[in-house]
Structure to design on (413 residues):
């Protein structure tokens, strides 16, 4: 099977790496890719949100499967364009990707499907926002309705900050504050059959102890030894399957990866958000534990045959991912700092370095984005995987590098 991965980040590197390890996959192509992806795939230039260009590239390469990584191309209809060209594509249609592209739409689907989630109010005017904030009370949760590249959500005790964020957004969704640990549970679906993956947890705040601004994600680990028994079964029955059924009922079947961001509150499981694609950096950790072939799974989902293939199998042990970010991330990441030590890190047993914001220049490998790379390690258990990941981090250097030191720490206690 020939495959093409669309995107440039750590998630796409993890996907390309897992595809390259699938004996059924003969070729891995990626576009636009990054220097890490180039080690496991052949790179091509393409504008990832241009459906006609992506479909044209897939046709020229004669690939059997396109995997669209990020949300922006999905919301822009890139998967539709690829399928219209007669090529299998893992990833939802533009219509189905609205589950991520519009928070108000996601809320509407959840309500129709009876999925447990935070109470919410959709507001279009400052007056509606002010009234909504007062009725929910602090802490305030204000979400931009549309895609905002991780910057759309503000959670604050400060009413003025909440109002200002709402002003900068246009339509907003206000929510009841959800307390409790967060879990990411992903499912592969062909629009009918749902195959949950293992639960993972990511760390959204920039600094240790969940301080600092929200980021795209500073690290992740899987599995979650503290998660209640039956969590995956419960979320599959109460969240993932009803959502997939509701989308099909609306004539917008969701095929691809459904990402449920969950809060385990004192009142039970609640959906914090849906995404329409693999999470980053959870995917870096998760796929390192996948024991069954990824290409076979994604192709079956893309072709509506998911019920015919066995559910994914996982290696025992654990995986931990620690993101190293650039000077100034998330506000204004600096580019061009020379990166050294990746080879030394990867010489460690169980360690892979997944590239996100890197570029090759005359100066060598340099930083080229906020989240630069994700050091990912597998081990016998979380403590072991964590030790290995941080040993890898210690061997990598670039000026201004930052990482959290507490990824997966609490879960090892
Ligand atoms: P989202 O982009 O919707 O995942 O939101 C980003 C982060 O904001 C989440 O991972 C949560 O940590 C936080 N968040 C979102 N919604 C809520 C909520 N209703 N209550 C508490 N925290 C929330
Ligand atoms: N890990 C959070 C996200 O992918 O949105």
């Amino acid at each position: 099977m020939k495959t093409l991965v669309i995107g440039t980040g750590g998630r796409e590197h993890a996907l390309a790496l897992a595809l390259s390890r699938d004996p059924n996959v003969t070729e891995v192509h990626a576009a636009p890719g990054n220097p890490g992806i180039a080690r496991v795939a052949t790179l091509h230039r393409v504008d990832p949100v241009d459906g006609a260009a992506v479909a044209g590239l897939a046709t020229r390469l004669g690939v059997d499967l396109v995997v669209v990584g990020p949300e922006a191309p999905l919301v822009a209809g890139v998967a539709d364009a690829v399928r219209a060209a007669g090529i299998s594509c893992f990833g939802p249609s533009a219509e189905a990707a609205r589950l991520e592209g519009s928070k108000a739409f996601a809320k509407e689907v959840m309500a129709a499907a009876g999925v447990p989630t935070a109470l919410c109010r959709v507001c279009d005017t400052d007056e509606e926002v002010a009234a909504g904030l007062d009725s929910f009370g602090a802490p305030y949760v204000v979400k931009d309705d549309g895609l905002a590249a991780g910057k759309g959500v503000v959670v604050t005790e400060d009413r003025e900050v909440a109002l200002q964020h709402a002003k900068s957004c246009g339509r907003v969704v206000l929510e009841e504050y959800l307390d409790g640990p967060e879990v990411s549970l992903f499912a592969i679906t062909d629009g009918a059959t749902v195959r949950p993956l293992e639960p993972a947890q990511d760390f959204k705040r920039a600094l240790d102890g969940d301080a600092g601004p929200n980021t795209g994600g500073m690290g992740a680990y899987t599995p979650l030894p503290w998660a209640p028994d039956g969590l995956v079964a419960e979320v599959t029955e109460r969240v993932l399957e009803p959502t997939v059924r509701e989308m099909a009922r609306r004539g917008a079947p969701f095929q691809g990866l459904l990402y449920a961001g969950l809060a385990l509150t004192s009142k039970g499981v609640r959906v914090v958000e849906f995404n329409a694609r693999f999470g980053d950096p959870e995917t870096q950790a998760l796929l390192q534990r996948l024991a069954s072939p990824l290409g076979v799974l994604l192709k079956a989902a893309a072709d509506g045959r998911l019920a015919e293939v066995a559910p994914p199998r996982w290696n025992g042990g654990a995986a931990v991912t620690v993101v190293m970010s650039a000077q100034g991330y998330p506000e204004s990441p600096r580019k061009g700092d020379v990166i050294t030590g990746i080879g030394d890190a990867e010489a460690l047993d169980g360690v892979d370095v997944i590239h996100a914001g890197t570029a090759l220049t005359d100066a060598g490998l340099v930083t080229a984005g906020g989240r630069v790379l994700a050091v990912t390690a597998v081990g016998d258990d979380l403590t072991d995987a964590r030790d290995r990941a941080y040993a890898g981090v210690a061997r990598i250097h670039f000026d201004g590098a930052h990482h959290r030191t507490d990824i997966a720490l609490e879960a090892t206690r």
Remarks:
- The first strand starts at residue 2 and ends at 7.
- The chain has 13 helices and 22 strands.
- Residues 262 and 271 are 5 Å apart (CA to CA).
- The mean pLDDT is 95.
